[in-house]
Amino acid sequence: MKALPLSKLVESLTPGRDVVVTADDRHTAQTIRTIKKMPKDLVISLAGIDDIDKTAVFRNAIISVERKLLPPLPDGEYFVTDLQGLTVKTIAGRVIGVLVEVFTTGSSDIYIVRDGPREYLIPAVKDVITKIDLEDRTMIISPMEGLLDLP
Fold first, then answer.
1. What is the pLDDT of residues 43-60, one digit of tens each?
2. H or E segment at 80?
3. Among 9, 80, 113, 116, which is disulfide-ready with 97 (CB 3.0 to 4.6 Å)?
4. Whole-model pTM?
5. Which CATH number fits domain 80-141: 2.30.30.240, 3.40.50.1260, 1.10.599.10, 2.102.10.10?
Protein backbone atom coordinates (compact mmCIF):
# COMPACT_ATOMS: atom_id res chain seq x y z
CA MET A 1 0.00 0.00 0.00
CA LYS A 2 1.15 3.54 -0.63
CA ALA A 3 1.18 5.93 2.32
CA LEU A 4 1.73 9.67 2.45
CA PRO A 5 3.82 10.65 5.50
CA LEU A 6 2.20 13.31 7.68
CA SER A 7 5.16 13.52 10.06
CA LYS A 8 8.90 13.87 9.94
CA LEU A 9 9.10 10.89 12.30
CA VAL A 10 8.72 8.21 9.61
CA GLU A 11 11.88 6.61 11.01
CA SER A 12 9.67 5.26 13.80
CA LEU A 13 7.84 3.13 11.21
CA THR A 14 9.95 0.00 10.89
CA PRO A 15 9.30 -3.67 10.09
CA GLY A 16 7.87 -5.38 13.15
CA ARG A 17 6.48 -2.09 14.56
CA ASP A 18 2.95 -2.30 15.92
CA VAL A 19 0.74 0.47 14.57
CA VAL A 20 -2.88 1.53 14.74
CA VAL A 21 -4.71 1.89 11.44
CA THR A 22 -7.76 4.15 11.59
CA ALA A 23 -10.28 3.97 8.76
CA ASP A 24 -13.92 5.01 8.88
CA ASP A 25 -13.70 5.62 12.66
CA ARG A 26 -12.52 2.04 13.22
CA HIS A 27 -9.16 1.36 14.82
CA THR A 28 -7.29 -1.82 13.96
CA ALA A 29 -4.00 -2.99 15.48
CA GLN A 30 -1.57 -4.07 12.75
CA THR A 31 2.13 -4.89 12.43
CA ILE A 32 4.32 -3.51 9.67
CA ARG A 33 5.82 -6.33 7.63
CA THR A 34 7.85 -4.23 5.18
CA ILE A 35 8.32 -0.55 4.52
CA LYS A 36 10.11 1.23 1.70
CA LYS A 37 10.72 4.97 1.66
CA MET A 38 10.11 6.59 -1.72
CA PRO A 39 10.83 10.25 -2.61
CA LYS A 40 7.33 11.47 -1.69
CA ASP A 41 5.59 8.55 -0.04
CA LEU A 42 6.03 5.16 1.60
CA VAL A 43 5.17 1.66 0.42
CA ILE A 44 3.99 -0.39 3.39
CA SER A 45 2.86 -3.98 3.74
CA LEU A 46 1.12 -5.21 6.87
CA ALA A 47 1.47 -8.65 8.42
CA GLY A 48 -1.39 -10.94 7.52
CA ILE A 49 -2.57 -8.78 4.61
CA ASP A 50 -1.50 -10.84 1.61
CA ASP A 51 -4.38 -10.15 -0.76
CA ILE A 52 -4.68 -6.82 -2.58
CA ASP A 53 -8.46 -6.94 -2.11
CA LYS A 54 -7.94 -6.86 1.67
CA THR A 55 -6.07 -3.56 1.38
CA ALA A 56 -9.16 -1.74 0.07
CA VAL A 57 -10.47 -1.24 3.63
CA PHE A 58 -7.31 0.75 4.40
CA ARG A 59 -7.80 3.33 1.63
CA ASN A 60 -7.47 6.86 3.10
CA ALA A 61 -6.63 5.40 6.52
CA ILE A 62 -4.34 6.99 9.08
CA ILE A 63 -1.42 4.91 10.37
CA SER A 64 -0.22 5.95 13.81
CA VAL A 65 2.17 4.83 16.51
CA GLU A 66 1.63 5.15 20.25
CA ARG A 67 3.36 8.31 21.42
CA LYS A 68 5.29 6.50 24.15
CA LEU A 69 7.03 4.52 21.39
CA LEU A 70 8.25 7.63 19.56
CA PRO A 71 11.64 9.20 20.17
CA PRO A 72 11.54 12.46 22.14
CA LEU A 73 11.29 15.61 20.07
CA PRO A 74 14.13 18.12 20.08
CA ASP A 75 13.62 21.27 22.18
CA GLY A 76 11.32 23.71 20.45
CA GLU A 77 9.53 21.06 18.39
CA TYR A 78 5.99 19.94 19.18
CA PHE A 79 3.41 17.44 18.02
CA VAL A 80 0.56 19.17 16.19
CA THR A 81 -1.95 17.47 18.48
CA ASP A 82 -0.27 19.14 21.48
CA LEU A 83 -0.57 22.57 19.88
CA GLN A 84 -4.20 22.27 18.86
CA GLY A 85 -6.42 23.84 21.49
CA LEU A 86 -3.79 26.19 22.92
CA THR A 87 -5.04 29.65 23.88
CA VAL A 88 -3.04 32.20 21.90
CA LYS A 89 -2.25 35.54 23.56
CA THR A 90 -0.12 38.52 22.69
CA ILE A 91 2.83 39.45 24.91
CA ALA A 92 0.56 42.25 26.21
CA GLY A 93 -1.87 39.57 27.46
CA ARG A 94 -4.63 40.04 24.89
CA VAL A 95 -6.35 36.76 23.95
CA ILE A 96 -6.32 36.25 20.19
CA GLY A 97 -8.17 32.93 20.11
CA VAL A 98 -7.57 29.20 20.06
CA LEU A 99 -5.11 27.40 17.80
CA VAL A 100 -7.32 25.08 15.74
CA GLU A 101 -5.12 23.86 12.92
CA VAL A 102 -1.55 23.74 11.67
CA PHE A 103 -0.53 23.58 8.05
CA THR A 104 2.90 23.38 6.51
CA THR A 105 4.23 25.69 3.84
CA GLY A 106 7.63 25.62 2.19
CA SER A 107 9.32 27.87 4.72
CA SER A 108 7.44 27.37 8.00
CA ASP A 109 4.26 26.10 9.57
CA ILE A 110 1.24 28.37 9.80
CA TYR A 111 -0.98 28.30 12.89
CA ILE A 112 -4.66 28.95 12.30
CA VAL A 113 -6.07 30.73 15.34
CA ARG A 114 -9.82 31.23 15.65
CA ASP A 115 -11.85 33.56 17.83
CA GLY A 116 -15.49 33.07 16.92
CA PRO A 117 -15.88 34.12 13.28
CA ARG A 118 -12.40 35.71 13.16
CA GLU A 119 -9.45 33.70 11.93
CA TYR A 120 -5.78 34.62 12.10
CA LEU A 121 -2.87 33.05 10.26
CA ILE A 122 0.16 33.10 12.54
CA PRO A 123 3.56 32.15 11.09
CA ALA A 124 5.44 29.66 13.28
CA VAL A 125 8.69 31.61 13.37
CA LYS A 126 10.84 32.60 16.35
CA ASP A 127 10.23 36.31 15.74
CA VAL A 128 6.49 35.77 16.31
CA ILE A 129 6.16 32.79 18.66
CA THR A 130 7.58 33.94 21.98
CA LYS A 131 6.57 31.07 24.26
CA ILE A 132 4.69 27.78 24.15
CA ASP A 133 3.54 26.44 27.51
CA LEU A 134 1.90 23.03 27.09
CA GLU A 135 1.17 22.70 30.81
CA ASP A 136 -0.64 26.06 30.92
CA ARG A 137 -2.11 25.36 27.42
CA THR A 138 -1.02 28.78 26.15
CA MET A 139 1.02 30.24 23.32
CA ILE A 140 2.41 33.76 23.58
CA ILE A 141 3.03 35.67 20.37
CA SER A 142 4.75 38.93 19.51
CA PRO A 143 2.75 39.97 16.45
CA MET A 144 4.55 41.78 13.66
CA GLU A 145 2.99 45.01 12.48
CA GLY A 146 -0.09 44.26 10.41
CA LEU A 147 -0.33 40.60 11.47
CA LEU A 148 -3.43 41.19 13.57
CA ASP A 149 -6.17 43.68 12.87
CA LEU A 150 -7.36 43.90 16.45
CA PRO A 151 -9.94 46.56 17.27
1. 898 998 888 887 888 888
2. helix 80-83
3. 113
4. 0.68
5. 2.30.30.240
